[in-house]
Amino acid sequence: MTASDADRTVEKLCLALSADLIASGFLRGAYPSALDTLLALAIGQANLASMNRNLALQKAYAGLNSSPPDDLRRPVRVRSVAISLGVPQETARRRVARMVKAGFMVQTKAGVFMPQSVTETPVYVATAEATWRAIGDLYGALRREGALGAPAHKVSDDEIPHRYMMRLWGDHFLRLIEALLPMVQEPFDIVLLFAVLRACQATKPVASKPISALSLSRSLGLPGETVRRNLLRLVENGLCSKTPRGYLITYALLDTPIWRQFAERHRLILMRFFSIMGERGLLGWWEADYLAAKASSRALPAP
Please, which domain of life does this record's source organism belong to (predicted)? Predict the structure, then answer.
């Protein structure tokens, strides 16, 4: 396998992970729509941004049983969040007001914040556990491909740092939006693109099936016209195809120049995520799982 082939393999592995985690996260339905989920993610990350500079606090609130209390959550202005995401300010204001009324957010004079109670719900816990497993599976695949080396830190006896990882993953996703935005024009287009990628299973060399705008509209909780308009923009940008039965991304399309550029940027950002996890000493648990799986495969009898 050439270096280029190896890079393409890693790129498809990374795309498959994001297609699964990003699409499923925005389709899960904890919030009324994918746009609400995007706003909630950005607000939640901004509330705890000060913790990024305090490793002691990061470690103190690393596990599922240690959600940061409300007094550590710094309120953020909705206007600032809207500007950072490229979302119309009135749209953001209206949607956040609904989330405040539903109890997902708390409004203060200084801005809004996501309360501790929301991050202790069964949905959040299940999402964190599923995300940990999915990224751990990718870690193992990247180790087998030689794309990652063994981490410097071993697994500790502490609680698995699900929450610490989720905060880093949230930062990764917002960084991903920033890096890919010039190619898709709107933040929501990235979510939509990964939803189509997941539905078509385009990262696998199998026959892809198109997905309709109506199906995506229902699952994402957004108006059909909004979804169709954004899908057509993805088609115009060469990232998606329109067929009589719906919208389609194929395995072959991933080898076009526009997708090669998209996939390369995405790979670099995701590898940076693993690098930060390594710097924070958080890869030991996944490394232990990888080594255990490797030992188990060696112990299996030959066919």
Answer: Bacteria
